[in-house]
Amino acid sequence: MSRFAIERHYQAMTPLVTLGKNIHTAGRLEPALIELVLMRVSQINGCAYCLDMHSKDARAAGETEQRLYVLQAWRETTLFSERERIALAWAEELTELTSREAVSDALYEQARQHFDEAALVDLSLLVGVINSFNRLNIAARTVGGSYTVGMHK
């Protein structure tokens, strides 16, 4: 059961929602890549509501079930492009932040080969946005399973 209803506080979340929409519409990150990052960060954080939402949105956008099934073990598959792999590594390191050096120089150099500066900023902001939503939903104990595609558009 939820502790509090996030919907009642939607106005407070408007800046996060707007930032997420701006990242999508900027077009520097592919929609499929965005959904993979949102899913992977939500897996790390254990946010059931966000996993429900982003798995459904990803499937509606054409993502394959197979890639979603193995996303947690993406390093051990050949199903993801080099750009996707770097984005997933960036998202993981930025989410986990085990130290000030968590996002390594080596990963940064790899990322710069696949993302221009504006796209890398968008990717970092995307990770920040989904981490914020994960934390809000986890704090509220929002129950997953009720999301329908397009519900929050």
Automatic annotation (TrEMBL):
Domain Carboxymuconolactone decarboxylase-like: 16-93
Pfam families: CMD
Matching InterPro entries: AhpD-like, AhpD_core, CMD-like
NCBIfam families, per the entry: ahpD_dom
Protein name from the UniProt record: Carboxymuconolactone decarboxylase family protein
Source organism (scientific name): Rhodanobacter ginsengisoli
Top-level taxonomy: Bacteria, Pseudomonadati, Pseudomonadota, Gammaproteobacteria, Lysobacterales
